[in-house]
Amino acid sequence: MIFGFVVLAVSVTLNAQQVDFSKMESLKPRSIGPANMSGRVTSIDVVRTQPDVIYAGSASGGLWKSESGGIAWEPIFDNELPLSIGAVAVSQKNPDVVWVGTGEGNPRNSLTGGYGVYRSLDAGKTWELMGLEKTRNVHRIIIHPDDPNTVYIGAIGSPWGDHEERGVFKTTDGGETWKKILYVDKMTGVGDMVMDPANPNKILVNMWQHRREPWFFTSGGPSSGLYMTLDGGKNWTKQSAEKNGLPEGDLGRMGLAFATNNPNRVYALIEAKQNALYRSDDGGFNWEMINKNRDIGNRPFYYYDIYVDPKNENRVYSIFTNVHRSEDGGKSFENIIGRNLIHVDNHALYIHPDNPKYMLLGNDGGLAITRDMGKTWQFIENLPLGQFYHIEVDNEFPYNVYGGLQDNGTYTGPAYVLTNEGIRNDYFLPIGGGDGFDVVSDPDDSRYGYAMSQQGYVFRYDKVTGRSSYIRPTHEDPKVKLRFNWNAAIAQDPFDNSTIYFGSQFVHKSTDKGSNWKVISPDLTTNDTTKQQQDKSGGLTIDATGAENHTTILAIEPSPTEKGVIWAGTDDGNIQITRDGGTTWTNVGGNLKGVPAGSWVAQIKASRYNNGEAVAVINNYRRFDFKPYLLRTKNYGKTWEHLVDENDVFGYSLSFVQDPVEPNLMFYGTEHGLYITIDGAKTWSKFNNGYPSVSTMDMVIQERESDLVIGTFGRSIWILDDINPLRVLASKGQKEVMDASVTAIPAVTAYQVSTRSAHGPANPGNATFEGENRRNGIASIKFFAKKPETPQRPNREANANGAPVRGQFAEGQGGRGGQGRPGAAGGRARGPQAKIEIFNQAGELIKDFEIPVEDGLNVATWRFDENIPGQEDEPQGGNNRFRFGGSVPALPGTYKVKITVGGESDETTLEYKMDPREEYVMSNLIARRDFLRDISVINNEVTKMSGKISEDIESVDKVIKALEGKRGEEYNQLRTKSNDIKKEMEELQGLIGRGGRGFFGGGSGDGPTPLQTEVFTLLRAVSGSYDAPVQAQKTSLKQIEDRRKELQQKMDAWYAENWSAYLSAVKDVSFAPIGTN
C-alpha cells in the first residue's frame, strides 16, 4: 500500500501554526447553488434489492447518496480530501460495503485528479483510504459478486504524464494489500473493464494509450488493446485482428459490455482508424464488426460507453453526446432522448438488473432518471455540482453573483434572497450558453455586462431582455489569426467604467464597452508554433473544440492603484507588464525562480496597497507537476518570492485574493480546498469549517458586505459571510485575541428588510433545491472571548417565579455555534455570560441583554429593537404567546456596542439602515416608535391582568383537586363555590385574553373580542409599516386604553368582593390559604 499521501497530509499539520478554526465554528460558508444546471456525473450504482438507494459520483463534487429514489440527496464524501469520483461500486452481497475510486476517467482538458481508493463498511457513513494514491485517476471498480474482499481496480491513470501506477489492481483481503495484475506501460491505462456475469474469473479490459498536453491530445497507439483473463487476472491474453477479428492498426479507447441474460453475447465499441461497434457471440473470443455508422458514438476520449439490457441481449445503449438505443443487436440505433429534454454529453448509465425500465443517466448536466425505459425522464434538480471557472459580484442589494460553468453556460443569481425560504434554482438567470467563463458586470448598470463562451466568443448581455451582442475582437490584419484560450482573459479598467480589456495572444482594449477594439500589445506569448496544432488534436479521432488552444493570454490585471499599469499572464509561462498603458511591455516571467518555464499563469492579482506589487497564481499540473506555485513581486516583476511550498498546502494553485481591508489576510484556493493566512503568507491554514476539499477555482470579496464569494469547480457557489473575525485575527494576532477576555469585532452594516414568499411552489417537498440563505432583518454582534474559568454567581435579578428580568438574555451563538439559551434564574448557577449593551448616538443605553459565552468566536443577535424604560422585555404571568413586552423598533443610525465578559469590556460600532429598496421618512419612524411604546405600555398592563387571573385559576384548580374524595356538606358547598368562581374568572379572562386558547389568545363564541387580540391587531398593523400611525390607529389605541381601564376597574371590584369571599370560604373549611391578595 502507498502511504505518501497520508504522510503529506500529516506533515502539513505539524509544520505550520494553524488558525484554530475549532474556536470559530460559527464561521461557516453557505452553499447557495445553483443546481438547475448541475455538473458532470461520472459513475452510478444502486443497491439491487433496495432500488431507492442510489450512489452518484461526480467529476469534482464528491459522492452523493439518495435513499428515496432520487428525491433527496446528501453528500457523503465531504470529509475526504479528493472530491473527484471516477468510480463507485456497491457490494450487492453486502450493500454496506461501498468502494470509491477517486479521479475521474474522462480525460478532457478540465479533468480533476484523485488520490487512491476508499472503502466504506457502513454504507457511506465513514470512509477509509485503502491505498493506490498514485494512480491519480480510477475509472472502473468491480467487486467480486460472492466475495466482497476481492476487488478489481481499473486505473486509467493521469493523462498528463508518464507513470507506472496504472492498469488493473486486485485485492483479495479487502484492500489491505494490492497486486498489479495487468500493466502495459506508463502511457496506458484502463479505458474500460467488465466482468462476465456468469463467470467472475473472466474479465475483459481495454488498455488505452493516451496522452494529454496543454496544447494537444493523443488517443490511441500500439500499446492500446483488448485483454482477457479466465483465471481472475493470473494470466492475460491480448486479442488481435488476426486471431480475434479486431480492427487492424493502432487502437484507442473501447466501451465493453456483456449481456447478462446471455453472457456469450459481448459488445465492444472500438476506437480505431475507423470507429465501429463489434459483437461477439462466443463470450469475447471472436469479434465481428456490425456497425460503423456515426450514430454509434463520438468523442471517444470523453465518452465511449456501451450497455446492454440485462434481460435482452439485442437491446443495446450507446451513450455519448446523445443516448442511442438499438433493438437489433447493434445493427441500427436511434436517439431516445428528445432535444433539450436532458443535458447532452453522457458518461454513466445504470440499468436495474431486475427492472430494465428503471435507468439512471449521468451527464455533464447532472443526473436523470427514467422508470419507463426512456420514454420520460426526471432531471434531478437538487445536486449542486456546478463547475465554475470564474466568479464575480456586483453591488446591488442584495448583491448578485456571476459565473461561467463547464458545459453549462453563464449564470447570475442573488447572494441571498429577501424571502422566508432558501435560494432556489429559479432565482438564477442564464445569461450565456456554451461553456461559460469569466463575467464582468457593467459598473455603471448591473443590468448589462460582458460574458463569454469558449474560444473567445465574448458578448455584451442584457439581463432584462435576454439580448446579447457579440463583440469578439478581430485583428486589423486579416492574415493574423487570433488565438483565444478555452478560458480567455477579460478585465474591467478600474479607472474608466467604459474601458475593458480582452486577451488573445494580444491585449485588446475597448473604450466604448466593446463596440470597438484596439490592439495595445505585441504577441505576449512565446508564439511557439509547435504548440499551435490544436486543429489536429485528438489522435485517432480528431477533436478540435478549442480546448487545446495554446500560446494565449489567460489573465489580464490592470493595477487598481496606478493608472497605465497592466499585467498579463499566458498559458506558456510569460508574465508581461506595461507601465504606460500598453505602449511598451516587459516580460518578467523569466524572473520566476523555482517555477518551470512554460507553466500556466492562471491568475495575476495586483495589490490594492502598493504600486508594483502583484501575486501570480501558477500551476503546472498539465505537465505532471502537481506542486503549488504562488509568487509575489513588490518591484514590478523584477524579483519574486514564493508564498507557499508543497509542505504548506495540498493541491496545485488555482486562485488567490488578498483582503482589501487587512493586508495580512489572504485566501488561497487549491485543487483540494481553501487555505487562509492571517500573517501575510508566513503560515497557511486549511479552512474546513463546513467547506469541502473541493477545487476552489476563483474567489472575490464583496466589499460592502465583507463576504468572501467562492466559485468552485464541482460544488457550485459558496459564500463566507462577514470575514471581519478573520480581519481582527490578522490585525491583532491570534494569540493576543484568543488570550484576551473579550475582543469586539467591527460589525458589517445591517439592514431592516421586508421579506416575501419564495418563487415557485409554496410547499415544494424534498426535491427542490434551496441554497442556504443568510438571516435577514437582524444585526450580528460578533466578538472573541475567553470563557471565564469559574461560573458566574447565581442570577439575583430574577422574578419570584424564577423567570429572568428584562435584558437577561437574547438570541445568540457561542463559539461552538450553538444557539444561546436563557441563563438560569431563581438562585440557580448560570454558566459564564457575555453582557451586550447598545447605546445610541446620544450615549443613551437603548438595549441590553446577555448570552452564554464560549471560548473563541461568539455571535449575538440584535433585532433592531430598544428597551422601554420601566418595562420588562417579557412581562410575567399568563400564557400570551404574542407578548412583545418592553421593546420597540430602534431608529436607523450608528450605535455603539459594548461587550463585557468576566469584568472586561470592549466596544465597536454598528450601523443599522432601513431597507434600501423602500422609501422612509425619519419623522414617521419616530412617530411609529413612540406609538408602539404606548401600545407596549398598555400591553404590559393587560398581560399583568391576564397573568393574575391565570395564576389564581391555577390556585382554584388546586382546591378542586384537593376536594376530590372528600365528603360532607361543607366540602360540597366549597366544591360548588370553586366551580362557580372558576367560571367567573374564565369569563373575565375571556374579556382580557384567554392566554393561548385560540390563535390570538382569545376565546371562541359570539362575545366581545378579547382585549389582547385588539392590542395585537393594532400592533401588527402599525409595526408592518414604516409610516406614522394614522388617525384610525390613534383612535383604536384610545379605545383600547379606555376599555383596559374599564376592565381593570371591573376586575378590581370583582377581586374585592367575589375573590375575597371565596378565600374566606376556603378558610372556613380549614383549607390552607391559597392566597391573601
> What is Rg?
35 Å
Structural class: alpha+beta
CATH topology of the domain at 39-379, which one?
A: Methylamine Dehydrogenase, Chain H
Q: How much of the sequence is in beta strands? A: 25-35%
Number of strands: 71
Mean pLDDT: 92
Summarize the structure in short.
It comes from Roseivirga spongicola. The protein contains 8 helices and 71 strands. The protein is of the alpha+beta class.
Fill in the keyword field for this structure.
disordered N terminus, five-stranded mixed β-sheet, alpha+beta, 1077 residues, globular, 8 helices, Immunoglobulin-like
Textual characterization of the structure:
Residues 1-16, 794-828, 873-884 and 995-1004 have low confidence and may be disordered. Among the domains are: 39-379, Methylamine Dehydrogenase, Chain H, CATH 2.130.10.10; 775-914, Immunoglobulin-like (Sandwich); 924-1068. The termini are far apart. It is of the alpha+beta class. The longest helix has 41 residues, at 922-962. The radius of gyration is 35 Å and the shape is globular. Strands 14, 15, 16, 17, 18 and 44 form a six-stranded mixed β-sheet that branches. A five-stranded mixed β-sheet has the order 61-71-70-65-66, with no helix packed on it. Helix 5 packs antiparallel against helix 6 (969-992) and helix 7 (1011-1023) packs antiparallel against helix 8. It contains eight helices and 71 strands. InterPro entries: Sialidase_sf (IPR036278), Sortilin_N (IPR031778), VPS10-sortilin (IPR050310), WD40/YVTN_repeat-like_dom_sf (IPR015943). Residues 786-796 have a biased composition (Basic and acidic residues).
